């Protein structure tokens, strides 16, 4: 992803909403008949970032990042209060229709297909709207047939499809006109493992053959891991991390090891022994009756923890799961909160060699 | 980009709309029965009013003339029930309008294209059968060929006005969540000031003057004035058409301006 020119640029992007203030209860509701008080809410607070062309980026953000609002500005639905953004050189909200030709969108909660029509009928309409050339249309349909089993959806009206079936069609529809950028806004993909893999292959193909840029916002860590190669973490208007997902995981400050052993020692006693032997470590029973050891990477290396366990227990099995992306993100946000609370204190380095 | 290319892009919304519509065939039957029942009540009521006057009764209508007026008014009302107000209001309220805005098309034009099959289907599947049915039951005035042609043209303009009125009604969804109330209000105002409930010719002077100046007049009273030949010379007929065309253009311009303003400050779509 280095070297590619940015296809998306956001400069100090800000969006404020006016929200009607309403008192609690019936009296409060009645009061709004006579007075209207408004409060300004900043959904997007001065965000600046660049997304390189041809990347598959997860747009991850906490407070003030306003993921969906940012997507709405990038797709031209909303106009920023201040700042600006560019998608493939166009300011989307100024030239909405021109921008719409070069982007594809999936809004997880809304369907862009024709509710009463079948998926093939919806695609035929999209073909006309986007003036998709015959060879492109044929090629993409063949691809969807092969990867997404789109033919299985047949002539069923979209309203009668299951969520997974609909999501497949939505994803295909967003790629049908070979857009330069696709935005998938919380597509809650609802697909099983096989189809998730198919979507991944589809995106990879579009990505490699056409250089399609993918921007995904999601709460589902699984979706992010399956589709994206890089992450853009925005908090309070600042980019706190931009790089590969692997790099992001490496910033985890806690690791864990889960193991089972053949010693007759009862579980609470085993946990106590670990916590005594490795101060600062937390040992607890996991769902499967095994022992889970969480340790801060600042205090112990994986080697120290494993050596201790091998020394004390007759291990039956043992594995070290990937650091939890959710944990990493929570940590990123928390660090940010403490930093802004005490600006004169230098932030502790979170990077560590343990991987 | 040429106008033809642009228009072609909206055609699929019309054909798609027709396809969707055909899934709900029984709906037309229900609309037809409702329209026929409504027409029956008003027609027999007004025929009783005119029963005592053998020649021209109140407002210069004959019994057959008022029957024709009320029946065609009912059909025009069915024609104007293009559902644009319901659908725009619902899409704005639910935020589905966002999906429309990520497409390379103008939303008001999409709505116009999508309502054409509804209007055509209402005309063919409800309007014509209801008129035919009543033509066997009660005496009606047969229009001259010229008046029928003027009526057809005027009806097309009335469809444009009805589209704009319904689009503007639906767009109140940006301001209020209670679009149901607004739609009810619109329906009553249109029914009254269009001359659908009571012909404008029968209204007291000042009220009639107000009704004649409003755009709603072009929805029912305008076409019927031409159908029944209740105008004075060519100038009179052109006057009716010109007023309709003027309102259609004005309302379309108003819709475009308000639509631009509304989307410019679009907020209520959820985070």
Automatic annotation (TrEMBL), chain B:
Top-level taxon of origin: Bacteria
Official protein name in the record: ABC transporter permease
Pfam families, A to Z: ABC2_membrane_6
Alphabetic keyword roster: Membrane, Transmembrane, Transmembrane helix
Statement: the UniProt record of this protein carries the keyword Kinase: no
Parts of the chain that traverse the membrane: 28-49, 61-79, 109-136, 148-168, 189-214, 234-259
PANTHER family: SLR1174 PROTEIN (PTHR36832:SF1), SLR1174 PROTEIN-RELATED (PTHR36832)
InterPro entries: ABC-2_transporter-like
